[in-house]
Design brief:
Length: 131
């Protein structure tokens, strides 16, 4: 029998998940952030926004989930990034470096042909709980 507690987290200042999942899950001192899309807290999908606007929104969403789970950017362990084209990698890397600051977790950036709703970027992450 598993004695570990698993806690789903859905921050009030993010739009509700669009499917059967939680924005974040806390388990055994780890924080798992579900793939975050460029969707505002009001539920607006930023389909027509530039890549940089979408990337900043996604990272803001990741930060919101981390905070709600009792973590933060400094506690990131691994980040997975999905972008709609490899040409967006340099711009994402620049925006990500500004956002992450001195934190340099393991990371993968995967170029995809298409993301949900026609959006340009999605980010998921794993972090340690604590500040």
């Amino acid at each position: 029998m598993c004695a570990n507690k698993i806690t789903p987290i859905n921050p009030a200042d993010l739009a509700q998940p669009g499917g059967h999942y939680s924005h974040g899950t806390v388990a055994n001192g780890f924080v798992f952030v579900s793939g975050q899309l460029p969707i505002t807290s009001a539920g607006e999908k930023l389909v027509d926004a530039s890549f940089s606007v979408q990337a900043r929104q996604v990272l803001e969403n990741v930060g919101t989930v981390l905070t709600a789970c009792g973590s933060g950017i400094a506690n990131l362990v691994q980040v997975r990034v999905y972008i709609d084209g490899i040409d967006n990698w340099p711009e994402f890397n620049r925006i990500y470096a500004e956002w992450a600051g001195s934190s340099q977790p393991s990371r993968a950036v995967v170029s995809t042909s298409q993301l949900h709703y026609g959006l340009k970027v999605e980010v998921e992450a794993v972090a340690l709980q604590g500040s």
